[in-house]
Amino acid sequence: MYEYIIGTIGMVTPENVVVENNGIGYQVYTPNPFVFSTTQKEPVKIYIYQHVREDIIALYGFQTMEEKTLFKKLLNVSGIGPKGALAILAFGDPMQVIGAIEDENEAFLVKFPGVGKKTARQMILDLKGKLQDVVPDYFPNLFNSDRVEQASHTSTQFEEAILALKALGYSDKEIKKISSDLKQENLTTDQYIKVALKKLMKS
């Protein structure tokens, strides 16, 4: 079982990053791959979770151990697989997610792709009262805005963000509702994704 990998980011796609280490490129799925765009070619440490099924062996990567721990907790909930857990983590505000679980706020939880009322109820039953002990004060903000440099708006960055949202499981209809407002922003791909997720959760 892998704990973490240290290497350079060789490639960033809407679904994953490729981490180069000792001549080998590891395909690693992450909640928001574009947070690594500004660190390409610089050594990074990514905490790894290896997911094994009969038909696939996949690596999932996270910037912090807390993020990895929450991912594993979510996988223990019936009805939530790796893709669903990544979509929840991509929201970037674990305190709000955990608060919704503690407050039994199903209306908030069902806004995530693939989470219906049954799964939301299961999340509450399985995780309520069990997440505060993972790290103190719930979790830190997983995506610190200070890590991201301002960049000029380009259609490429906007399109990359849209592809990433689709990879997380959001439908064309859901994305279309927030696209017009999103295009008015002058952001990096990572920032587009964060703003889009906030808007999708409010819609």
Automatic annotation (TrEMBL):
GO BP: DNA recombination; DNA repair
One Gene Ontology cellular component: Holliday junction helicase complex
Protein localization: Cytoplasm
This protein's record includes keyword ATP-binding: no
InterPro entries tied to this protein: DNA_helicase_Holl-junc_RuvA_I, Hlx-hairpin-Hlx_DNA-bd_motif, NA-bd_OB-fold, RuvA, RuvA_2-like, RuvA_C, RuvA_C_sf
Region annotation (Domain III) ranges: 154-203
Domain Helix-hairpin-helix DNA-binding motif class: 72-91, 107-126
Pfam families xref list: HHH_5, RuvA_C, RuvA_N
Alphabetic keyword roster: Cytoplasm, DNA damage, DNA recombination, DNA repair, DNA-binding
Family, similarity comment: Belongs to the RuvA family.
Protein function: The RuvA-RuvB-RuvC complex processes Holliday junction (HJ) DNA during genetic recombination and DNA repair, while the RuvA-RuvB complex plays an important role in the rescue of blocked DNA replication forks via replication fork reversal (RFR). RuvA specifically binds to HJ cruciform DNA, conferring on it an open structure. The RuvB hexamer acts as an ATP-dependent pump, pulling dsDNA into and through the RuvAB complex. HJ branch migration allows RuvC to scan DNA until it finds its consensus sequence, where it cleaves and resolves the cruciform DNA.
Subunit structure and binding partners: Homotetramer. Forms an RuvA(8)-RuvB(12)-Holliday junction (HJ) complex. HJ DNA is sandwiched between 2 RuvA tetramers; dsDNA enters through RuvA and exits via RuvB. An RuvB hexamer assembles on each DNA strand where it exits the tetramer. Each RuvB hexamer is contacted by two RuvA subunits (via domain III) on 2 adjacent RuvB subunits; this complex drives branch migration. In the full resolvosome a probable DNA-RuvA(4)-RuvB(12)-RuvC(2) complex forms which resolves the HJ.
NCBIfam families on file: ruvA
UniProt comment concerning the protein's domains: Has three domains with a flexible linker between the domains II and III and assumes an 'L' shape. Domain III is highly mobile and contacts RuvB.
Official protein name in the record: Holliday junction branch migration complex subunit RuvA
Taxonomic path: Bacteria, Bacillati, Bacillota, Bacilli, Bacillales
